[in-house]
Amino acid sequence: MTLLLAIDGGGTGTRCIAVDPGGRTRGDGRAGPSNHLHVPLVTATEALRMATSEALSKAGATIQDVALVSAGLAGVDFDGTGADTAAGMLRSIGFGRVVVHGDMVIAHRGALAGDPGVVALAGTGSAVLGITRGGATIKAGGWGPLYDDQGSAYQLGRLGLVAAAEAFDGSGPATALVERLTAALGASNLPDTVARLYGTASGQQRVAALAPVVTACADEGDDVAAAICGRAGAALARAVLAVIRRLHALEAREGRAAGGAREAPACLASYQGAVLERSGLVRAAFLETVRAGEPQVEVRPPRFAPIVGAVLLGMCDAKWDLRLESLETASGV
Questions:
Q1: Relative to the CA of 86, which of 31, 41, 96, 321 has its CA 20 to 30 Å away?
Q2: pLDDT single digits (tens) 1-17
Q3: CA pair distance 323, 286, nearest whole angstrom
Q4: What is the model's pTM?
């Protein structure tokens, strides 16, 4: 048996699938966060070990059956910064041939299946990546929680906490977030949530996990939560618009350098991640803001999940020839 292991590792969890040369998923595994910038290296490595071991076990395979590991990991930037550390984690597990990309790179490949354009990734953190027809890349966001991770699950959770605190103090409008966030954190009242958040080493993950509470309140008609969702979607859209403008300028320079006519602007966009995929309010604000800023942009739903983007990139490295249509029917992801 010959397998490719594809990994999507983020700030909240890690997923691995074992794929055969026909594009069929033979096994899958999940584990905790593997972003080595936010958790200790040993913790990130153990998450990768657990996810890959489970996938191989379900496939009835061993490390010796793995032709290539193709990983997209948070903590690795779009330009490969941090890839050596991440590859070292995988090699310490026992894997030989390893290719590591940033999580936004596999998200882009999955969403647009290799086409040029711009993709917004909004999970625990957030980032936007644009790729020209010539393969040049431009990023916006991805600054991490200290810079607020605009439009991310972390920002949704944090703004929900801010709104709840202001409502509790009487300095902000009333909101169901007070009661709902208190319950989500297992506390008896909002002041008791302080120790539950500040007293944990996984603060970013704990706050990001509150995002579904905020979006649920918004869906139920809470005006404060709805405003937070609108703010998140608009922030992601502004980052997309910024990248589109920079791509236009870059493609114009590329056209002049080649001595030919300027290529048509990149007008394709998509999105990945739980925030945009699961919240209709966030997505609506995102789409409205993008279309208002760049009416000619076509925004498509993602064709594949990020982990399939890792499969596609891995198949290129492994020189496996597989049509996208075959992968759509065979991958099961």
A1: 321
A2: 899 999 999 888 999 99
A3: 31
A4: 0.88
